[in-house]
Amino acid sequence: MMISIKLVFMSALLCLSPIVALSDTLSLQGEDAPEFKEAVQAWLNGDDLAALHYLSEQAQQGNPAAQILLASIASQSRFHSHVTSDLERKERIALLRKPGGLSGKSWVTEAQNSEPLALALLQASKIGEKAPAIAALVELGEPQTAIIAAQSMLLNGEAEDLISVLQGLDGKLPKEADVLLVWALFQATQGTANRYAGSARVAGTLSGDERFLASELAWGAFTPRELVENPKVRDAATRMSGEIVAWTPIRDLCNNHCPDEVSACTATGAALLSSPFTPRSPLQSLITNEEYWASKRIEGDVVRSIVDLRHWDADTGVTYNHCFMSNIQKLQQRHMP
Q1: Which of 123, 143, 177 is the last residue of a domain?
Q2: Do 103 and 191 share a domain, yes or no?
């Protein structure tokens, strides 16, 4: 029998719990090695090629922490394309991947033999294995990777399985997971396994609750055109621009380059992210977002997380904040390959 939308919303409210700090997170073998710490610091300082060579050497020597971190960096081009795109293909593969086959293999396939985190990361990328991976990732200190896998479950029509997973993790999920549970509950009541295309608007429509609004916006549920043409979207994005944790690096960039227009600048940048929750640490259990966002490399990673605007036309392009657009173009010329 179809459950009412009101009941869905009330169920979602009852399932939400305050965020608590993860405890007893398992450490990775090799993370305390001085040479690994040196590689991590070099990477945070933006000394990319040196850091990648350090990590590659340690991965080949069997350091699981280096293997997992290198695999995580290699899987997201914004972390390395600016220094690897000019390398010969064989050199790039040798630097970033484990030997094997024509294109090498992710180093996480090696680390899975000794590290539960590596196994969970592999499972999170496979249809049908995401549910157990989500629970493991949260417990192992990778909550954002977990909720991105959760979104994939929702889009694949696995709403009921996702509800079971999320409800079993009460109190350990980041705030951005709040709206995922609402979307999953709503989709499950529709009696269909197909993606519910309107899910990105459900939470705000049902609740009008600021908690859900912040969570919804963090998933990138609006476009640059909506900022210009939709007053409700524009008001929500600018009003919440200082409260959404995932937008911290964009907000910091705006404070540096557009100090008189921070709210509009931040909302514009958030609308132009290539994917939700970028930039974020490649591996939160080793490098916290706060440490990563305060690092020397963050400006480059932020501009590489924004869609390429180097050919944007200020006279014809749709934009809410010209200060952001003009500055990001200059920064992308400097930081993008």
Answers
A1: 123
A2: no
In a domain, 6, yes or no: no
pLDDT in tens, 196-252: 333 444 334 444 566 688 888 999 878 888 999 999 999 999 999 999 999 999 999
Residue 326 placed within a domain: yes
SS3 labels along the chain: CCCCHHHHHHHHHHHCCCCCCCCCCCCCCCCCCHHHHHHHHHHHCCCHHHHHHHHHHHHHCCCHHHHHHHHHHHCCHHHCHHHHCCCCHHHHHHHHCECCCCCCECCHHHHCCCCHHHHHHHHCCCCCCHHHHHHHHHHCCCHHHHHHHHHHHHHCCCHHHHHHHHHCCCCCCCCCHHHHHHHHHHHHHCCCCCCCCCHHHHHHHHHCCHHHHHHHHHCCCCCHHHHHHCHHHHHHHHHCCCCCHHHHHHHHHHHHHCCCCHHHHHHHHHHCECCCCCCCCCCCCCCCHHHHHCCCCHHHHHHHHECCCCCCCCCCCCCCCHHHHHHHHHHHHHHCC
Same domain, 138 and 242: no
Within-domain flag for 212: no
pLDDT in tens, 244-274: 999 999 999 999 999 999 999 999 999 999 9
Domain of 231? 222-337
